[in-house]
Amino acid sequence: MKTGTALKTSDEMAMLVTRMAEISPDEQSCVSRITSEIIQLVAEQLISLRHDHPRFRESDYSMYTGVGEITRRKDANIFLTACFLEYRSGKTDVWDNAVFFSEEILDDPEKIWQVILDHTYEGWKERFYDYNLHPMPEIHNRLYFIASRMVRYYAGDGRQIWEGYLQDPESVYKRLLLLQIPKSIACLVVGILKDLGHIRGSFDIVGDIVDSRVLGRMICGDGSGITFMKARRLARMLAPDDPWILDLPLYLIGSSWCGPGPKCRACPVRNACVFAVSEELGIRPDPVFRDLFFGRKTVQKTLRSWQQMVNNK
Fold first, then answer.
1. What InterPro entries is this protein classified in (predicted)?
2. I need a labelling partner for 34 at 20 to 30 A (CA). Which of 8, 158, 253, 277 fits?
3. How many domains does the chain have?
4. CA–CA distance from 66 to each of 4, 97, 133 (Å)?
5. What is the residue range of 247's domain?
6. pLDDT reported for residue 302
7. Is this structure's pTM higher than 0.85?
8. DSSP state, 103?
9. Who has greater pLDDT, 244 or 285?
10. Which CATH number do you get for residue 171?
């Protein structure tokens, strides 16, 4: 049963979606006004979800045990190892694997990255099944090259990445990118450091495929084609002071309800989602709203198409 607030939100969104389906692209001022109202409704719903339910505001880090508070060198390196193994992919229990690898297989070394480099690259690849860090060989192999850069740039001590940059999340992010890791992982590391209070300041969401799909559906009615940068741009509209506060709600919504086959009826934000409401109403918003957010795509003629046009004259 819907509460009064949820019912009001649902009615408002239904009215906006209906107007989105009927509006003329020439009514630019009206399009902007509707877009602004949608942004407000979505922002209120996501922020309320984070505020009212602990599950949607606790750091991912607190969901796992076996890793300390990352103030010690060993714990910082285990934490980074787990992040570099893409723990959000759901492929395996990488937090437990990272702890076991460090404390049992490597006998709890202070210099985990150097110990990895004590292997040759071929030798490291051969230990894929022995170490059982990740079910995908390419992720296991990538860790060797990350270890090389960790030693080269940060003397094998993960804390050096953020120490001295406690008020500057963007610089920490750029220092992580020196390791040549995916941008989404670098964002996730920065965000967890923020959640734990090691660094402070505004920062963006991860912006991965899950975030992109949820934001695209909630705001534009279509979760396809939303890139890393477009997802970040949408999050900045919703929470300009600190977009990171939306990251965990977006991740949990995307992984639990808003997958490739969405479960809109069970989703806690369905009342403020353009996609869910439009599905319920059986209508589709005009693409002009998507164009407003990201601009229309320009059509570029290839050399071949130009040549064909010349030949046809």
1. DNA_glycosylase (IPR011257)
2. 253
3. 2
4. 43, 10, 15
5. 4-58+206-294
6. 46
7. no
8. I
9. 244
10. 1.10.340
- What is the per-residue pLDDT for 107? 80
pLDDT over 70 for what percent of the chain? 82
Contact call for residues 91 and 134 (beta carbons, < 8 A): yes
What the block records as the tokens of 295 is 């601009």
Report the alpha-carbon distance of residue 79 to residue 87 in Å, rounded.
Answer: 11
- For 156-180, the pLDDT digits (tens) are 999 999 999 999 999 999 999 999 9
Phi, psi of 112 (to 5 degrees): -60, -40
Q: How far apart are CA 112 and CA 80, in angstroms?
A: 11
In a domain, 159, yes or no: yes
Confidence bin at 298 (pLDDT 50/70/90)? very low
Take residue 16 and report the two structure tokens written for it. 């906006």
User: pLDDT, tens digit, for every residue of 103-122?
Assistant: 889 887 788 999 999 999 99
Same domain as 71, residue 128: yes
Q: Are residues 182 and 218 in the same domain?
A: no
Distance in angstroms (rounded) separating the CA atoms of residues 43 and 52: 14
CA dihedral 165, 116, 180, 230 (to 10 degrees): -80
Shared domain for 220 and 243, answered yes or no, is yes
Burial-class residue 101 by CB neighbours within 10 Å (0-12, 13-18, 19+).
buried
250 and 126 within one domain:
no
Whole-angstrom Cα distance, residue 176 to residue 154?
10
Task: Classify 66 as helix, strand or coil.
Answer: coil
Q: 299: helix, coil or strand?
A: coil
Contact in structure between 94 and 132 (CB atoms under 8 Å): no
